[in-house]
Amino acid sequence: MDNKKHFVNSLWVGVPASLYNGYPFDGRLATQTAYFRKEFDLGEQATLTMHVSASTRYRLYVNGKAILSGPCKSDRYRHFYETIDVSQYLVLGKNIIALKVVAYPPYEAQHRSGEGQGPHFAINYAAGPCLAVSGEVLDKQGQVLSKLHTGTTQWKVCLDRAIEWDTPKLTFWMGGMEVVHGSKLPMGWECSPTPQGIWDVAETRLATQPGDHGQIIHFPLMERPIPLLYEKEIDFTREMPQPPSDFAPFSFGEEIPPNTKASIELDAGTQTSAFVAIKMKGGRGAKLVLKYAESYSKEIDLGYGDQEDHDSPANTVLYMAKGQRDDSLNYELIGHHDVYYPSGGQDEYVPFWFRVFRFMRLEVCTGDEAITIEKPTMVETAYPLETVTTFHSSDKELEQVWKISQRTLQMCMHETYEDCPYYEQMQYTADTRLQMLFTYALGGDTRLGKRAIDDYHASLMPDGMIQSRYPVQVPQAIPMFAFHWIFMLEDIYWESGDTAVPRRYRPTVDAILDWHERYLNEDGLLENMPYWQFLDWVPEWMAKHGKPNAAFVGPSTAHNMVYVYGLQAAARLNRRTGRPDAAREYEIQAEKLKSVIEAKCWNAEAGLYMEGPGFAEYSQHSQVFAVLTGMATGERATSIMTKALEQEGLSKCSFPWMFYFIRALEMVGMYDRATVFFDVLKEFARLNVSTVPEDPFMPRSECHAWGAFPLYEFPRMLLGVKQGAAGWGEIVIQPHFMAADSCGGTVYTPKGNVDIAWEKGEKGICVRGTVPTDATFVYPCGKQEKLAAGAFEIWLS
After folding, report:
1. How many CB atoms lie within 10 A of CB 591?
2. Structural domains for the chain
3. What are the tens digits of pLDDT across the range 169-187?
């Protein structure tokens, strides 16, 4: 992270005042686009490594080839930059480095201006489009042939006048979609020596280096902490049948006559996040609409909107009625869209940001001129997820659930973990903790996880609470989510065996727990916390935005139990990192809280924990955390978990809480009952989903990785490969012979991969495999057997 080395000869540059002449509004208070270019000639082979950042976002082109987007999601004190070797794209003769930069205004200005807002995940400034580049073109001997430093070498810039922004009602978190007038675009800006448009020299705007007196500069540059996203070409798999309508079907490459309405719908085969490009010829006076959707559906207006809530505007339609996800004859494509008005020449339209969809609908309304449209192309992009673990089974539906879960996690990983790529692309704590565990199980990659941990630490507010999603321009806090960040610290310790990460963030753990302690009532229970007291999206709490009913009249048992679980995790972390006194303090607090919950929330007649003191409603959530915290043990634990599974009237866990439900079943020796949760995903698979939907009740998003729990359950429990000690100091093999007649696969561990398979037969169950180092096999009865490195075979009668 050597900013002084990489940008010592560069300055931030922006759009000069001369280009704002005749512009209809002040671009620094509205979303706007600029195109930056640098040209140089080469007479010999050369190399070029570039360091690039922008405000707010950029797309980098080298000689017309799009190769990179950035900068990595940033915040006020960490403005990231990318480093990339572009040597393979250089040519002999003229070379053109071009960047399209979109600058979003501050959130407050977006509402005043009436323009399309920026994405919630982008932290924005009233600076207009700004660019910082550092790089030198070198010959084979390392001699400088050309310099690309912004601010100290000349770059040209053109201010866009073609793009308008329209914020969709359904997915407003993602910011404005594009309305583009092709006749106003500066055609050729990516690669032509003579691009259209009005160009001028980019003006020096800001310093890239801090001063000598500790000032925090406007964009404190830091090296990107994660790998670059992958980009690969993909294709649509089929054209979808359409019911009769005012739009006639059309074929790509064939002329669409004047004064015609035509459409086509395409299936990418699975949910994807991709840069879309579409070429066309002619069509002056036409209108082209590109609509993106996760599935076919019908609208349901639940009426839960709140005009004062920026995350739920009035009358927002949050949910759809859905059946078979690819039923194009009985459902329709509802989603956000881009609009393009062709110039009448040879046009290519490429939306700036990647689009997320499975299905895409193209509508064209021609004017007095015919148009020919080529089949759209796609370049998929996402985090380069390292996948080593595999899974196979005699139950092909389990295999499909595994495949769907993998795709879900992949699509919820870009520059951060994401709650849902289609609707929000924001990183939420409760989602992220599970996604990190799933990532570790697939390949052990901790890089995005470490970035997430640091993100939430960076979100710490003056009162001691961390934000529930970050980085983001619209702050939000959910007190219960803060505990999931503490769980992340313990998870990464178990995965790596390294105490450095939890040690680094102990003060933030203290701040979170101190914040909660300030909201204990006279009985010693959490009550009347500020911010959003969200717990889970369950039907009984939906109209109250996921807040338990008990929390409206007093303490919530579930809230207090999660608090106990957080105190216990903090105690373990402090003990492992050399703070036994702090650990003991948190242990004492947890025990006091357990005693109060037991006294005031246990209903002996019902044999369940109530949702609050004297509040005779019941949820699965409270029973689950009673087990996880050790409040309920032995026969009581078995009893309440059985009732949680079988008794009617309990509020049921949605997808993220199913993970914790399964952990409680594991603790009480009832893991075989977890198949009920696998069956929920099987039901979705039968509806032709390609990813796991947001919740099992009324799914809004079709891709939400908090429901991809098979990525943990199948390798860790069905195949049974898990840590016996932190950092995989010991490998334990403890399969659960359930859900199928046979299961097998390869499971990643940092000590080497474990190959394992089990099969039920007439003689019993045979378990075969190889282990990379000495391991321990645990029989269903609890008996343990040491395994030497290499192949093993075990029979169970």
Report:
1. 13
2. 3-160+184-228 (2.60.120.260), 232-382 (2.60.120), 404-681+698-718 (1.50.10.10), 719-797 (2.60.420.10)
3. 888 899 899 999 999 999 9
